[in-house]
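Practice record 12: protein with zinc ion.
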Amino acid sequence: MSLRYKAKRRERYYRKLRRCQYKGCTSEGIACFLPENYSGQPDEFYCGEHAHAVGYCRCCGQFWGGICSFDFRRSGFCDHCHDQVMANSAELDDNAEYWEATDPHANV
Ligand SMILES: [Zn+2]
Ligand SMILES: [Zn+2]
C-alpha cells in the first residue's frame, strides 16, 4: 500500500468522522486543533454551536480557550477570525443573533 494511498484513505476517514463530538449532538463539526498539534490532522470535531463552549474558534477551529477576549466573545470567533470578519463588515457589531443566522458552516 503506497503512502499516498494511505493518506487518501485517512482523509476519507476523517471526513466521515466530521461529526460534532459534543455529547448528544449530531451536527457536522469543523476540524478543531489543539495548540501543540503540528500534524495537520484535527484533534477533534465540533459544530459551530459547541466549538466555542469547549474552547475552539467556531470559524478556524484553533483552540483559544482561556483567552478572555475569546471566552467572552459571544460570536465564538477567535481574535484572528473576528478581525477578519470585522474588516469585511465594518458596521456589524458583536451580535450573537447575527452570527447564528450566518453560520459559515451551516450548509457545508
Ligand atoms: Zn454540536
Ligand atoms: Zn478563528
